[in-house]
Specification:
By secondary structure, this protein is of the alpha+beta class. It has eleven helices and eight strands. The chain has an eight-stranded mixed beta sheet with strand order 4-3-2-1-7-6-5-8. α2 packs antiparallel against α3, α2 runs parallel beside α8 and α3 packs antiparallel against α8. The longest helix is centred in the C-terminal third of the chain and has 47 residues. The protein is elongated, with a radius of gyration of 52 Å. It starts with a helix and ends in a 48-residue tail after the last helix. About 10% of the residues have low confidence.
């Protein structure tokens, strides 16, 4: 039940993150109403208040969900492993070499270290080490293609070494308490790290792998290795199997509860908060704005918008006046050129009148065309004209 109760905190944290994201979205959307600052503030206030109300209802529902899980342990669930299967699983783990949840040959740490007792030519040369739960292997480089050696960790211990003038960094050694060779003809494997933090991290990793410091043989295990050391010294295999069976049962049921919470919590958030807030904005936000009774003040423009509008009007009138001046200049230019061509359409007052056509003299009479000759070849008689 304690493990199930711990699901409350991450579930509530998830709701807080959703509320924060919704608030950021509302703030970004209301930026489009910055022309009317009071309307924007009122709309943001109404939506945020509604989201906060739904947040409280959503948190209450999530708390109820966890309380439902605490109220009854459904051991008849189809995904529950059951006591028989848990016992069988613990027995199989014991037969395959697994002890109390420790995975066979699990990789614990990787990194570079130097070996200081391989001779002068190879002294202080960095190798790529891979520490697992059963062995320590080192390679030429990080690609892990050329393996140099693999050292089993069974019955090995660890102790600190003092740095000498021939070595660099912080040193520690791995050895066998029974005096056997650890690596080829060497009784110890002297390793060094560049910093104290690296060495402490590697020593903690060796503790996880079951390689304990030298002082723990007489003083007992401490820190992280205490619990695992006690388990190794346990002489009651039946008790170990019972503990492992209980562990399998708890893990199986917690997996069911965790899966259920992962599925239900997002659905609760979407139904009670996100979708409800969206429906409120689409259907009730406008009515809520009108219900404030201050619509006239909410539609007042901001001072910046008024200045922008005045600036646009000033630019409009300036452009209009400039177009009128350009039109007048164009008319004057075209009118001056047309007066020389006596074009009356531009009728200027100072243009010279066109010369009038002189009438013919009154005494003059129209000339008659010459008479055709008679058929006999003689010209017709001349008729005197009146004067």
């Amino acid at each position: 039940k304690t493990q199930i109760g711990r699901l409350r905190e991450p579930s509530l944290k998830c709701i807080d993150l959703v509320v924060q994201e919704l608030t950021n979205v509302v703030r970004a959307v209301t930026e489009k109403m910055q022309r009317y600052p009071r309307l924007r503030e009122e709309a943001e206030r109404i939506i945020t208040t509604y989201i906060r109300e739904k947040e409280q209802a959503c948190k209450e529902q999530v708390m109820l969900l966890v309380d439902f899980q605490l109220a009854y342990m459904n051991t008849n669930h189809e995904d529950f492993i059951g006591f028989a299967n848990a016992s069988s699983a613990s027995q199989n783990d014991e037969n395959t070499g697994k002890k109390l949840g420790k995975v066979t040959n699990q990789v614990i740490r990787k990194g570079y270290m130097a070996i200081n007792n391989l001779g002068i030519t190879a002294r202080n040369k960095n190798y790529w080490f891979v520490l697992s739960s059963e062995s320590l292997s080192w390679y030429k480089d990080g690609e892990e293609k050329e393996k140099k050696f693999m050292l089993p960790l069974e019955q090995l211990k660890l102790r600190d070494l003092e740095s000498s003038f021939m070595s660099r960094g912080h040193m520690f050694a791995i050895y066998n308490p029974e005096g056997r060779n650890v690596f080829k003809d060497f009784k110890t494997l002297d390793l060094s790290c560049e910093t104290q933090d690296d060495m402490d991290s590697w020593k903690a990793s060796f503790l996880r792998a079951g390689v304990y410091p030298e002082k723990q043989t007489s003083e007992g295990t401490v820190g992280e290795g205490e619990e695992e050391g006690e388990r190794r010294e346990s002489v009651d295999p039946q008790l170990e199997r019972q503990v492992e069976t209980i562990r399998n049962l708890v893990d199986s049921y917690m997996k069911i509860v965790t899966t259920s919470c992962k599925d239900q919590v997002p659905k609760i958030i979407m139904f009670l908060m996100v979708n409800d807030a969206k429906a409120f904005i689409n259907g009730e936000l406008l009515a809520a704005l009108y219900s404030t009774g201050d619509t006239q003040n909410m539609m007042e423009e901001s001072a910046d918008e008024a200045l922008k509008r005045e600036e646009m009007l000033r630019m409009y009138h300036a452009c209009k006046e400039a177009l009128n001046i350009i039109a007048e200049v164009s008319n004057v230019t075209l009118g001056g050129g047309a007066s020389k061509m006596s074009t009356p359409s531009y009728g200027q007052s100072n243009a010279a009148p066109a010369p009038a056509r002189r009438p013919p003299p009154p005494s003059a009479s129209p000339r008659l065309p010459p008479a055709r000759p008679a058929p006999g070849g003689l010209p017709p008689p001349m008729v005197p004209q009146r004067r």
